[in-house]
Amino acid sequence: MQKKEIELDTFSCKKCGACAEVAPEHFEMDEDTETPRVLDPIIEGEHQDLEQAKAFCPSESIEIKVIEE
Ligand code: SF4
Fold it and tell me: Which of 6, 13, 24, 44 is deepest in the core (most CB within 10 A)?
């Protein structure tokens, strides 16, 4: 099965929290820094919620890279 890696650019991130709301299985907001973090960067298969989070992100800070076919 295809493996993918979730990359989060915390520099460009606007800390809006949308990713953690849309895809709580993949993102969590750090309460102290108000910055999201990726819970498990390596995933397999299709993740609709993750694609939605990527689409909703206002700063295009989320990348999903295929690392293994
Ligand atoms: S949706 Fe984008 S801008 Fe908003 S917290 Fe998540 S990564 Fe940052």
Answer: 6
CATH code of the domain containing 38? 3.30.70.20
Answer yes or no: pTM beyond 0.90.
yes
The protein residue whose alpha carbon is closest to atom 4 in ligand 1 is: 16
Residue 57 CA, ligand 1 centroid: distance in Å: 5
Closest-lying ligand 1 atom to the alpha carbon of residue 27: 6
User: Residue 24 sits in which domain range?
Assistant: 3-68
17-24 long-range CB contacts below 8 Å, 24 or more apart?
18/53, 18/56, 18/57, 18/58, 19/53, 19/56, 19/57, 19/62, 22/49, 22/52, 22/53, 22/56, 23/47, 23/49, 23/50, 23/52, 23/53
